[in-house]
Amino acid sequence: MSLLTVILSRSPSQDPRKRELEEQILAALSREPDVTVATIPHLYDFVEADESLRSVTGSLLVLAWLYPRAIHWTLDRLSIKGQYGNTQIPRPDSEKDEPKNSTNAQARTIWSLDLRDGDTAAMHIAEIQRILRDLRATTPAATSAPASVPKSEIGNQKSKIHRWYPVIDYGRCNQCMECLDFCLFGVYGVDDDGHLIVESPDNCKKGCPACSRVCPQNAIIFPMHRTPAIAGVPGAGVEVQKLDLSELFGAPAAAQLATAERNAALAAAEKEAKPKDNLDKLMDALDDAKL
Amino acid sequence: MPDELVFMMGNFAARFPADRRYTLNHMWLCVEGDSLRFGLSAYAIRLLREVYFLEWSVDAGATVRQKDEIGAVESAKAVAALYAPADGMIVRFNPDALADPSAIHKDNYGAGWLFEMTARADDAMEPAQYLSCLETSWIKAQELLKKQNA
Asked: Residue A288 falls within a domain, yes or no?
């Protein structure tokens, strides 16, 4: 009988220190009763068609090298929904901003921990043990929900394809549809109820976070963007975890950035549109030829 | 002419082979067949330290303009976007560096090259000229480091 399923999302980077931290946490959790542990490749790279994660039921805790908000809403778009579990991990961000739940969140709780918080495994292990204590205290043994037992490794570990797409924080999104108007690649769409969805994520232009910059609610997360505010940092804080050396490598000044991104998107869109123009001309020519 | 020039970054001696040219965004380039091969200079590597993650945001065959963002690296010390060093077409990316980004810092002038481009790169500099640019760049870099560490 397992009270909690812990899923550890592996880092896409080959940093040996990250690997070591992951292994330390996995080793500690393997000695913990009431816990089912599984590892997955980088959560953000999961494709929507992969249903393996959806088989996990009951209380869930996800560790990933992403901001908790990014984890929560990436899970949400994979249809893994739940109440946002509050954690007591000290964050460098002065402002606390826990995600609000989407309206159709299920009763179960999902905790999201950012593995970049703190340099030691001990802090994460202690937090998981705290959550377990709470769960044991509030769950009568006889009625504890039997969590499903996933395989120790879920998903295709060998997948080397890094995805790039926006993740919507539906706790912030107010359905203004500015992103839908702004994006030239048809990434966004609306569902049957007229609500904004990321309809064609893989149409997104790798590296382009422009729609996130135009979102009035700052509700669009690109979890892998190097700018914390775009990658889903809590609150408005822009606490930098690593130095951003882009300026030294030729980055344009901040004011030029949004314009440059938009222009690049436009140029690429025009390039893509050209074959259609030629096709149109061909169709016209065929019409004119009266074949 | 010596085989390499040296620029002191504090106590660290960054070395720049004289057999190639350099760009303002701290890449080296040399002729490789019909195209130019690019990699990161020792100056860039010293600022980044060990490189753990490399990703390209454009595909091989893409036409790019100078300063277009084409990818990103993450290292022990930093994250940084990478920008096209010249107008031209990206012919191919180094598959070995993509598979194991540590090649970028372990052998930055050899096996750790980044990509090959068909480009003119008219504004690429001889090593001596690059080193004179580093004098001002190093001051700017130290200011940036101080500002971001504050």
From this structure: no
pLDDT for B126 equals 96
User: Secondary structure of A90-137 in the HEC alphabet?
Assistant: CCCCCCCCCCCCCCCCCCCEEEEEECCCCCCHHHHHHHHHHHHHHHHH
A256: pLDDT confidence band, cut at 50, 70 and 90?
Answer: low
Q: Specify the range with the lowest mean pLDDT, choosing from A51-65, A258-272, B37-51, B114-128.
A: A258-272
Residue B64 belongs to some domain of the structure: yes
Residue A111 forms beta bridges with which residues? A61, A85
CATH number of the domain bearing residue B105: 2.40.50.100
Q: How many domains does chain B have?
A: 1
Q: Is B135 part of a structural domain of the chain?
A: yes
For residue A286, tell me if it sits in a domain: no
Tell me, what amino acid is at B41? Answer: S
Q: Write down the pLDDT at residue B41.
A: 96
Give, in order, the Cα–Cα distances in Å from B39 to each of A211, A236, A250, B113, B122: 31, 36, 15, 4, 17
Is A199 within 8 Å of A187 (Cβ atoms)?
yes
Q: How confident is residue B56, by pLDDT bands cut at 50, 70 and 90?
A: very high
Q: Tell me, what's the pLDDT at A139? A: 74
* A positions 166-205 inside 8 Å of B (CB): 205
Q: Do A89 and A198 fall within a single domain? A: no
A247 close to B (CB below 8 A): yes
User: What is the pLDDT averaged over residues B105-134?
Assistant: 95
| Mean pLDDT, rounded, for B2-16 | 91
- Report CB contact under 8 Å: A242, B77: yes
Residues of B near A (Cβ–Cβ under 8 Å) read: 24-26, 44, 47-48, 52-53, 55, 57-58, 67-69, 71-72, 74, 76-83, 85, 100-102, 137, 140-141, 144-145, 148-149
**In chain A, which residues have their Cβ closer than 8 Å to the Cβ of B78?**
242-245
